[in-house]
C-alpha cells in the first residue's frame, strides 16, 4: 500500500525566484508610502527596544525602504536580499536619501554572519516562502547572527484569519494605476498536504503582449509548530503581536504613527502574526 507521503515531490519550492527577478513585482505588491514606512519603523523601534547606533539587519530588504528610515534614525543598518534587481533599485534610493546602508546580495537561508547584530527584521510576510528546510535554516541564521540578548521581529501570516473558501480559477486583479496597459490577473492556490497556500499573479502588457508570471506560496505554520521550530533552533519567543480591529486602537491611529499592533491584538481575527524572539 502506498502512503500519501510517498507521492509527494520534495518540498523545494523556488517559484519566488521568478517573481523577485522582475521589477513588475512591485506593480503587484505595491510600494509603501513614506508615511507607512515611518509607521512600520516606529513599531519596530518600540518592540525591538532599539538604542542609538544599534546594528540592525533587514532580511529580504527589497527596495530598502525600511533600511533607509532606520538609517535616518541613527542605526547602523545592513540590508540583505536575493534579488539583484531589487538591490540595484535599493542602492539608488540609498544614494538619493544620502544615508549609510550596507546592502548585500544573498540567500537568507544561507546567512553566514555570526554575532554581529543587535536586532533583525524579517518583514513583509516573507518568512514561510521557502521550503521547510530552508525556513529552518533561515531561523538558524538569525540566531547565529544576533548578539547575546539580540532580538528579531518576524512578520508572518495568521492562518486562522484566512477563513472562507478560496477563489476558484483566475480573477481580474485590475490595471496598474501608472500603466493602463498592464492587466493583472490572479488565482488562489493551495497544497493542503504541505500546508502551503498562496496565489499566482499574471501581469500582461496589452501594448506588447509580454507576460510576467509570478507564483507565490507560503508554508503556513500552526502556532505550536512555529513555537517548536523557534525553540529547536535556539530562539526564545518573547511575544506575538496582532492587529485585530476589535482589540487594537485603530481609531486614534494616524498614518505616521507607529503601528498600533499589540499582544492583545493577536487573536483568531488578526490578519498579522508578528513574532518577537531573542537568542535563548
Written overview of the protein:
This protein is α/β, with parallel strands linked by helices. It has helices at residues 16-20, 25-29, 34-48, 65-72, 84-97, 132-145, 223-233; strands spanning 55-59, 76-81, 101-105, 117-122, 146-157, 171-175, 182-191, 196-205, 211-219, 235-241, 272-279. Helix 3 (34-48) crosses helix 4 (65-72). It is globular. Residues 1-11 have low confidence and may be disordered.
Structural topology:
Elements: H1 16-20, H2 25-29, H3 34-48, E1 55-59, H4 65-72, E2 76-81, H5 84-97, E3 101-105, E4 117-122, H6 132-145, E5 146-157, E6 171-175, E7 182-191, E8 196-205, E9 211-219, H7 223-233, E10 235-241, E11 272-279
Parallel strand pairs: 1-2, 1-4, 2-3, 4-5
Antiparallel strand pairs: 5-11, 6-7, 7-8, 8-9, 10-11
The domain tally reads 2
Low-confidence stretches are 1-11
Distance between the first and last residues' Cα = 44 Å
CATH second-level architecture of the largest domain? 3-Layer(aba) Sandwich
Strand content: 25-35%
What is the helix/strand order?
HHHEHEHEEHEEEEEHEE
Query: Which fold name corresponds to the CATH topology of the largest domain?
Result: Rossmann fold
State the major sheet. Answer: 7 strands, mixed
Tally of helical runs? 7
Short description:
By secondary structure, the protein is α/β, with parallel strands linked by helices. It has helices at 16-20, 25-29, 34-48, 65-72, 84-97, 132-145, 223-233, and strands at residues 55-59, 76-81, 101-105, 117-122, 146-157, 171-175, 182-191, 196-205, 211-219, 235-241, 272-279.
Amino acid at each position: 500500500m502506498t502512503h500519501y507521503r510517498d507521492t509527494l515531490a520534495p518540498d523545494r519550492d523556488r517559484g519566488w525566484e521568478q517573481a523577485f527577478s522582475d521589477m513588475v513585482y512591485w506593480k503587484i505588491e505595491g510600494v509603501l508610502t513614506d508615511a507607512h514606512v515611518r509607521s512600520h519603523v516606529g513599531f519596530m523601534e518600540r518592540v525591538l527596544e532599539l538604542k542609538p547606533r544599534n546594528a540592525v539587519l533587514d532580511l529580504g530588504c527589497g527596495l530598502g525602504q525600511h533600511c533607509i528610515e532606520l538609517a535616518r534614525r541613527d542605526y547602523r543598518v545592513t540590508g540583505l536580499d536575493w534579488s539583484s534587481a531589487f538591490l540595484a533599485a535599493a542602492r539608488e534610493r540609498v544614494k538619493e536619501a544620502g544615508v549609510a546602508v550596507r546592502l548585500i546580495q544573498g540567500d537568507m537561508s544561507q546567512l553566514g554572519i555570526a554575532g554581529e547584530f543587535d536586532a533583525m527584521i524579517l518583514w513583509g510576510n516573507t518568512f514561510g516562502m521557502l521550503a521547510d528546510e530552508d525556513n529552518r535554516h533561515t531561523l538558524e541564521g538569525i540566531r547565529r547572527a544576533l548578539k547575546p540578548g539580540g532580538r528579531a521581529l518576524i512578520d508572518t501570516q495568521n492562518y486562522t484569519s484566512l477563513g472562507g473558501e478560496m477563489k476558484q480559477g483566475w480573477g481580474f486583479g485590475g490595471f496598474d494605476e501608472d500603466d493602463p496597459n498592464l492587466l493583472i490577473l490572479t488565482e488562489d492556490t493551495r497544497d493542503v498536504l504541505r500546508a502551503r497556500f498562496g496565489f499566482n499573479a499574471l501581469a500582461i502588457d496589452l501594448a506588447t503582449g509580454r507576460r510576467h508570471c509570478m507564483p507565490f506560496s507560503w508554508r503556513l505554520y500552526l502556532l505550536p509548530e512555529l513555537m517548536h521550530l523557534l525553540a529547536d533552533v535556539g530562539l526564545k519567543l518573547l511575544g506575538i503581536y496582532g492587529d485585530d480591529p476589535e482589540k487594537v486602537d485603530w481609531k486614534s491611529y494616524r498614518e505616521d504613527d507607529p503601528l498600533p499592533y499589540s499582544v492583545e491584538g493577536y487573536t483568531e481575527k488578526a490578519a498579522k502574526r508578528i513574532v518577537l524572539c531573542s537568542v535563548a
